[in-house]
């Protein structure tokens, strides 16, 4: 059953696991400092909503930045992680400055259909209507494949940097989890007598 899950379902599953795991981790390690536990959980939860789902916008990463900055003020070992997070957020949000070509989510079927209409009109211009010409006319599927290939070619130059940012984000997120996991555990209050 798991092999038949869609990428979207996997992303939701990973997000749910990240939220549950982060809540448990913050409770276990930071419960003696409840305000810090809430801030760290909020920052990591917001970051997880950028990392794990398959359909996100770069602006989703911005929501966790101020919260993680506040967390880094209380947990100095988070500062290098937050510096990486700020770099990632800056690059993700400023993609139109450093990367040419279409945005990641800009390929759509309607644009491909417009390309097909243009190809179809250009093909039939000045041609007689015959069965052979109709069979040789551009097909919608071919136009969509051509449009998608053009889209991928336009994005190809930035693929390495985009993957580097993805890996940096995953690594920084894992490092933040590691920092929280190695924070001194809460000491339960003892009853005085």
Protein architecture, described:
By secondary structure, the protein is mainly α. It has one domain. Helices cover 71% and strands 0% of the residues. The chain contains ten helices and no strands. α2 (34-51) runs antiparallel to α4 (64-74), α4 (64-74) runs antiparallel to α5 (79-93) and α7 crosses α9. The radius of gyration is 25 Å and the shape is elongated.
Number of helices: 10
Rounded average pLDDT: 85
Q: Which range best describes the helical content: under 10%, 10-25%, 25-40%, 40-55%, 55-70% or over 70%?
A: over 70%
Described by strand count, sense and barrel closure, the largest sheet is: none
The total tally of domains equals 1
Cα-atom Rg, whole angstroms? 25 Å
Helix-strand string: HHHHHHHHHH
Judged by helices, strands and strand pairing, the structural class is mainly alpha
**Unreliable stretches covering 5 or more consecutive residues:** none
Oligomeric description of these chains: single chain
How large a portion of the residues is in β-strands, by DSSP E?
under 5%
Number of strands: 0
What is the end-to-end distance? 57 Å
Overall body shape = elongated
